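Supplementary Note 3. Input sequence used for the single-chain structure prediction.
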Amino acid sequence: MNDHAVKVIFLRLMRGVPMILLCAAACVLFQVATAPNASADPILGSNLSTFAILGGAGVTIDGTGSVITGSVGASPTISITGAGYSISGGTVQSGGATAAAAQNELGTAITALEGMTAASLSSLDNNSITGLGPGVYSVSVTDFNTTLILDGGGNTNALWVFLVSSSLTTASSSVVDVINTGSGAGVYWVMEAGSATLGSGSTFAGNILASSSITPGTTATDPCGRYLAQTGSVTLDGTDTIGISPCSGTLAGSNGLSGGGTLSLGPNGGPVITPLEDSRIPEPGTFVLFGAGIACLAARRLRFGARSAAGPGI
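The predicted structure, written as discrete structure tokens, is reproduced below.
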């Protein structure tokens, strides 16, 4: 290749640089314009989300076999008893500013979740449900003794909210499982005025936000969620499993199923939750962004072709 040919190629490449930069800038601007509102926060605040267990009237961990991933905290009652458990990915915080701030965030989250419009779900106790889609559900019957499969239908940001009218009790060996969703999903069990008791050998999923106490039975597991009590205590049997990062499979990265929506101030100043948009892999926005880039490159191609057809003098 002679010097003249190299020079021609170089000049052609340089002519395309402004258009390439313009395409890149257009993609960036589109991404910024369609980004979520910066004032919106996660449903569980930055302090609250670090806790696997938070008790308003203290935390008691009996026995020697409980496995906890995430922090354990107590506030305003400063009492955490028990020493025979293992903890990773967090610390024990009896009182302190972080636990106090987390309790404030818990109150805000409960208020916001309780304010969501819900559909009635009264048959949760007697019949196995193997494909309950994302949604907000009002649960009046609280003795759960079957199998509940939460099916996200491929939405990686699926959100389930269960507003329990009183207290929640699960039977021994009952199962709650989450499938067909991803790292942006969230599951919340909310008891504005009640407590939660999980049966021995039961498998649970998601975050329990209770006004009163939370008591998991022998070998009860919630491997992807939290026990968060606002005014009551949290009492583990001693052989329980709870954590915000053991989440596995498609739930890996969900931080204890704490996604699904954002929390912001509504027009009346109260906390409001906005569900995240349905997101697939790749996300719908990715296609639009990719299309914007392709359109820019196509425009450049047409422009270059038109100039070539007009001759070297153009």
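DSSP finds three helices and 26 strands in the chain. Residues 3-35+282-310 form one domain.
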